[in-house]
Amino acid sequence: MFTALDTFTLVAYLVVISGLGIFFSRQNKGFHDFMFGGGRMPWWAIGISLIATSVSATTFLGNPADTYGTNMTLLMCNFGGLVAIVLVGWWFIPRFQRLGVTSAYEVLEQRFSRPVRLLAAVFYSAHLILRTGMLLYGPSLVLSQLLNVSIYLAICVTSVLAIVYTYFGGLRAVVWTDVMQFFVLFGGGLLTLWTVASAVGGWGEMGRLAAEAGKTTWFDGSLDPSNARTFLSAGVAYIAFDLAIRGCDQQFVQRYMACKDIREANYSSVLSLFLGLLVGLLFYWVGAGLFVYFQSVQVQALPEGLGRNDVFPFFLLNIMPSGITGLMVAAIFAAAMSSLDSAITALSNTTVTDFLRADPARGDHLQQARIWVLVWGVLGTLAAFVCVLGEASLLTKALFFTSLFTGPLLGIFLLAFFAPKARPRAVFGGAIIGMLCLLPFSKIPVLPDHLWEPIYTFSWPWNPLISMTGTLVGAALLHFLWPRTKAVHA
């Protein structure tokens, strides 16, 4: 049960997090300080912030549920992540650092045209606001159950706190709160695993029983692309998925530019991969441990009809010691806030630099950036409200539509780096073709099943690879089909 000690622990944590924003506000003298922390932030803090942004509450709550119901085969995504890290460090980070960009999409106007830059910024903003709504909805659903409050209140508390410290502290507050929240998240997972291991006979016994139940299986070498849990999907196709996020997402680019040079930006990127593997392992083992606790050893019975997504929240509320439960709920808040703060900072930067064309070198746009932090924070909150109204069906739709944008974005950047003489109209049209290429291989959520039947349904890691390939091929064809015209740069 949630006790007075748990409440004190949770409130104290939230007060400290909010206070950090006020503290760091004194160091923001202008737009560059607010958005990039002055460009000299420690690489290790940036690396922790990168993974804190990436894992979100989905890892804290979703990984245990995934292992509880299946196994650890999605750990194979780290193979694809390793390749993506190498490519980002080789292709993307050096270019961004040398050009000194304030927005990732600034490169696209330099290479092609303003319409291409705007298209990429629109794709990114649509993808991120949908993702933000989902990342707020999931943990808030759990928090509302744990705290016995309305889900709308849980969303609002999470949003308001993240907006407050981001509004005042900018990227410095985001990074340092992410560092703190990462350790709360990781510590919460360790505490859970220790509690489970103590109850089932120790670490060795927990590992043995988990292996017997098939929960520790992590590799599947089959070649079925419709299954996300194979090496072909999670290890190979996932390369494009992770490359699109790490190389084209303003949240990541913003952090690369907060490092003082290329070497430190690469250090932060590699550290984020290493920490991501540790966090993934930890929370997959939490799920395996919970299976041993409730099913193999049967230390305690689960309520009738409890789904696998509800097992971990049940454990937190009913089995964890008093005071620790409050810390674990704080970890869920931490994961949700670390997703929101990064999103609204990146969206504010994209709005000011890409859509409004503000030049930070010619004026102080600090207040303008802060206003857009507020605006995007409110929009992210409303997106989470829409998820509540739509429930699971809307989440499925949002996942589909976000997958439409990431692949074409990656395709546009690859063209900018390796085919800078491609005609802007061809690049623009190629991105649209890339989106359309995904439709024959996916179910379209807005259409009834009887009206649209995919040719072949690929699993989710393939979506960015398919749409990226469509973008590159489409742009190449249009480049040669359209008559040559002189590109007009705005």
UniProtKB/TrEMBL annotation:
Keyword match Secreted: no
PROSITE patterns the record matches: NA_SOLUT_SYMP_3 (PS50283)
Positions of transmembrane segments: 7-24, 44-62, 74-93, 118-137, 149-168, 180-200, 270-294, 314-336, 371-392, 398-419, 426-442, 462-482
Alphabetized UniProt keyword annotations: Cell membrane, Ion transport, Membrane, Sodium, Sodium transport, Transmembrane, Transmembrane helix, Transport
Main location: membrane
Pfam families: SSF
Protein's UniProt keywords contain Membrane: yes
GO BP term, pick one: sodium ion transport
An example molecular function term from Gene Ontology annotations: symporter activity
Location in or out of the cell: Cell membrane
Cellular component terms per the entry's GO annotation: plasma membrane
Membrane topology label: Multi-pass membrane protein
Coiled coil: none
Family affiliation: Belongs to the sodium:solute symporter (SSF) (TC 2.A.21) family.
PANTHER family assigned to the protein according to its UniProt record, in alphabetical order: LD47995P-RELATED, SODIUM-COUPLED MONOCARBOXYLATE TRANSPORTER
Protein name: Sodium/solute symporter
Organism: Sulfidibacter corallicola
